[in-house]
Design brief:
Length: about 200
């Protein structure tokens, strides 16, 4: 049975926090594949600052080229409308009929998972993977995990070194001509600069 990790998001841009989160879960669970899936339109985030799907996918592909189990997928970009995770999981079940699916989410998404579109159905099909984004969040995540466990929802919560990096902070710094050293890989920054992204 293949262990398939789904890691979706705006990736606007993809950064070290995203990469570190996926790699840390890979060490623990040992995935066969980690799918980086840029969203077409996220149900959870403001899309006004979103650059093109083509550029976001290209940056994910640059990451995948450097990490053997990573694979960048355009499946949500090819769908019209909002990118609902349950639709992505259902599509992947036909591609990986023997797959066991893990959904990597940030702490904010994990804590609000009950409000997602067709949440009950989604949580039956995946094992949720979440880690703290900020100091002090681990206990809150464990409390949520225990509540989900009573509903039969499978989840893995890790305590890892938090990386206080956000895509919005990176975009703001790039817009203002400030350094983003250490916040995203050099090759992603090279792509951003070559394509003059996040300047407006």
């Amino acid at each position: 049975m293949k262990k398939i990790a789904l890691f979706g998001g705006a990736f606007n841009p993809i950064h070290q926090g995203h990469i570190n989160l996926a790699l840390r879960f890979d060490v623990r669970i040992k995935f066969d594949e980690i799918l980086l899936i840029p969203s077409h339109i996220s149900p959870h985030k403001d899309s006004r600052a979103l650059i093109s799907g083509e550029d976001r996918l290209a940056m994910c592909r640059l990451v995948a080229e450097r990490h053997p189990r990573f694979l960048a997928s355009d499946m949500e970009l090819r769908r019209e409308g909002k990118s609902f995770t349950i639709d992505t999981v259902q599509a992947l079940r036909s591609l990986y009929p023997d797959g066991k699916f893990y959904l990597i989410v940030g702490s904010d998404m994990f804590l609000s998972i009950d409000s997602w579109y067709r949440a009950e159905e989604l949580m039956r099909l995946v094992t949720l993977c979440a880690a703290a984004r900020e100091k002090g969040e681990y206990a809150t995540l464990i409390h949520k995990q225990l509540a989900l466990d009573t509903q039969g929802v499978k989840s893995v919560v890790c305590e890892i070194d938090e990386l206080p990096v956000s895509s919005s902070a990176i975009r703001e710094r790039l817009h203002n001509g400030l350094s983003v050293e250490g916040m995203l890989p050099d090759y992603v920054l090279d792509y951003i600069q070559a394509h003059r992204l996040y300047r407006e």
